[in-house]
């Protein structure tokens, strides 16, 4: 093996496999993923793919962990100057920009949370949402804050799922809400969770 091939196999092979995996999931869904198929697409043996990821479950778990890391980055970009709704919108934008990752991240039957740092990556992302929702409640309002977190997360996750399924096409949104896109829809829906102002 020459030096450039060695660098490919040990340096960029993992990245190449994950990039191709993203394409396959976008085209055929997670059900269309096989180790052998990816190996053929990337031009290596299936044992080379197995060296990096182990099993198909390991491969999907690594991809999901990467998704949670990307989600954390998206949330961190708005956390300091944003409110809970802003993090919700960042969550939605992430889903729309990374549909393949999003489709795998919340499929526990496909994943091993003890593999490839998946559990830690998912906890990091969730903790960012949780810390932002804490701004809604003060002392003694823990249950209310938890309810807001679940409601906000569920709302944005559901909007993302519907948008990715093609339910919120531009014509439907214009008919229902005027000049709006799915982000506008999410902002309006999210404001329903804001606490009432005093007075």
Report on the architecture of this protein.
There is one protein chain. 72% of the residues lie in helices and 0% in strands. By secondary structure, it is an all-alpha fold. It folds into 2 domains: 1-54, Arc Repressor Mutant, subunit A (Orthogonal Bundle); 56-199, Tetracycline Repressor, domain 2, CATH 1.10.357.10. The longest helix has 26 residues, at 3-28.
Task: Summarize this structure as a short list of keywords or feature phrases.
transcription; transcription regulation; 199 residues; 10 helices; Tetracycline Repressor, domain 2; MT1864/Rv1816-like_C; disordered N terminus; TetR/AcrR family transcriptional regulator; Tet_transcr_reg_TetR-rel_C_sf
> What is the terminal separation in angstroms?
74 Å
State the domain count.
2
Name of the CATH homologous superfamily of the largest domain: Tetracycline Repressor, domain 2
Number of alpha- plus pi-helical segments: 10
Q: In sequence order, what are the helices and strands, one letter per element?
A: HHHHHHHHHH
Strand content: under 5%
Radius of gyration: 20 Å
| Helical proportion, percent range | over 70%
Choose one word for the global shape: globular
| The CATH architecture of the largest domain | Orthogonal Bundle
- Helix/strand-derived class? mainly alpha
Largest sheet features: none
Average pLDDT, rounded to a whole number, is 85
Which segments are poorly predicted (pLDDT under 50) over 5 or more consecutive residues? 1-7
InterPro entries: Homeodomain-like_sf, HTH_TetR, MT1864/Rv1816-like_C, Tet_transcr_reg_TetR-rel_C_sf
DNA-binding region: 34-53
Protein name: TetR/AcrR family transcriptional regulator
Domain HTH tetR-type: 11-71
């Amino acid at each position: 093996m020459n030096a450039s091939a060695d660098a490919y196999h040990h340096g960029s092979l993992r990245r190449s496999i994950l990039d191709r995996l993203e394409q396959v999931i976008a085209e055929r869904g997670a059900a269309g993923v096989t180790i052998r198929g990816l190996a053929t697409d990337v031009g290596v043996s299936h044992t080379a793919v197995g060296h990096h990821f182990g099993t198909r479950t390991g491969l999907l778990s690594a991809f999901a962990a990467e998704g949670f890391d990307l989600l954390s980055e998206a949330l961190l970009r708005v956390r300091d100057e944003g409110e809970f709704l802003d993090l919700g919108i960042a969550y939605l934008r992430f889903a729309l920009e990374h549909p393949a990752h999003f489709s795998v991240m919340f499929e526990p039957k496909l994943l091993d949370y003890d593999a490839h740092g998946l559990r830690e990556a998912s906890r990091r992302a969730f903790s960012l949402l949780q810390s932002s929702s804490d701004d809604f409640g003060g002392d003694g309002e823990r249950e209310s804050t938890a309810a807001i977190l679940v409601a906000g997360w569920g709302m944005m996750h559901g909007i993302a799922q519907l948008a990715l399924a093609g339910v919120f096409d531009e014509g439907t949104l214009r008919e229902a809400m005027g000049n709006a896109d799915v982000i506008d829809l999410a902002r309006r829906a999210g404001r329903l969770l804001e606490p009432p102002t005093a007075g």
